Amino acid sequence: MSEKRQFVMRALEDSDVDEYGRMLHASFNAWYWKHGWGKDYFACTPAETAIFYDIYKDLTPGCGIAAIDGDTGAVAGACFYHPRPTHVSLGIMAVHPDYWGKGAGRALVEFILRFTRDNGYPACRLVASAINMNSFSLYNRCGFLPRSAYHDMVLTVPDGRSAVRVDGRGHVRNAEMSDVAAMAEL
């Protein structure tokens, strides 16, 4: 069993952007390599991955949390959360591979669950990929119950083929409320 560490929980700050990008890049790529995907999930630089910080910070300002290694000061993991009128949504979460199994993910989830309770929200919700049993197990141990399931689908597009016309493409349209029942049945 991995040694558990002490983490200092604090707001994710603009000064963390570079380290956040490196952590997110390392986390996702290491997980996909470990599970046999044989390629990087993020095929860009860690600096380019840092765009997720800006996206999620703009989505819900002030709602990013970092788990800081109490010994080294490194960003061990981070998560964004999104207070909504009826619940708090747990957003993108990542833990640097050096801290997998050491309690950083659990500390992040527990922080957000405390925020949910302390601020009177009736529920905390999340969407997690069924492909990532590590996160599913963490969320389950923290008290989350599955309500529905989905599975990622990865399609490899050969180089230079992304502009190929597909039959039926002209029949694609934006979904409408009248489509909901048929989509649910599908």
Describe what this molecule looks like in 3D:
The protein has a five-stranded mixed sheet with strand order 1-2-3-4-5, sandwiched between helices. The chain has helices spanning 17-34, 46-49, 51-59, 104-118, 133-141, 180-185; strands at residues 7-11, 64-69, 75-83, 88-95, 124-126. The model has no long low-confidence stretch (mean pLDDT 85). The chain is globular, with a radius of gyration of 19 Å. It is of the alpha+beta class and 186 residues long.
Topology diagram in text:
Blueprint: E1 7-11, H1 17-34, H2 46-49, H3 51-59, E2 64-69, E3 75-83, E4 88-95, H4 104-118, E5 124-126, H5 133-141, H6 180-185
Parallel strand pairs: 4-5
Antiparallel strand pairs: 1-2, 2-3, 3-4
- How many beta-strand runs? 5
**Shape estimate:** globular
Unreliable residue stretches:
none
Largest sheet: 5 strands, mixed
Q: What strand order characterises the main sheet?
A: 1-2-3-4-5
Strand content: 15-25%
Please state the oligomeric state of the protein chains shown.
single chain
Span between termini:
42 Å
Order of helices and strands: EHHHEEEHEHH
